[in-house]
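The protein record minuted underneath.
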Amino acid sequence: MTPQQKHQQLFDTLEILPQITKGNSIIISNVPAIIERKVATMRSNKSRYEEVSHRFVNPGLKWWLVALIHEMECTQNFNCYLGNGQPINKKTTIVPAGRGPFATFADGAVDALKLQRADQITDWSLGNVLYFLEGYNGYGYSKYHNINSPYLWSGSNHYASGKYVSDGKYDPDAVSSQIGIALLMKSLLQNA
């Protein structure tokens, strides 16, 4: 099975959990309501995401991919760099370091997407897009720890624990406090 097929299979069997927990502690309650709110904000900013995606004539980057990455990297803050969430008006200091400053969110987003080769995506199958998104955050979870990436699956039946708590530092007991991008994608694409 290819990584893309595995991601498609995970997406097809995705169940959104009511909350994200660590032991007896609730990290995020009412995951479905938070997803709904985040997706509504993405849709309300569709024209801003299209401004970025339309800069890529071929192969036609999708606005929703920009929106999803924006949520994961910047919590939809348009003053942040799409590559790592740092301020767009300063040179980045974390991976990818040395980018910027940028005059606008769109300028920084175009830079980040080109850096990750998002502008070269031609296969828009969900499995391939999810595989690309895992790589956007890094393949360390599957490659070194044999777990599904929380960047994609946190808040679902496909993730329980294990997280990079900083660049290169993995904690098997840490639990992501971020809702996974696959959960957001499922909701966003249902009525896109």
Q: What stands out?
A: The chain has one domain: 3-14+29-190.
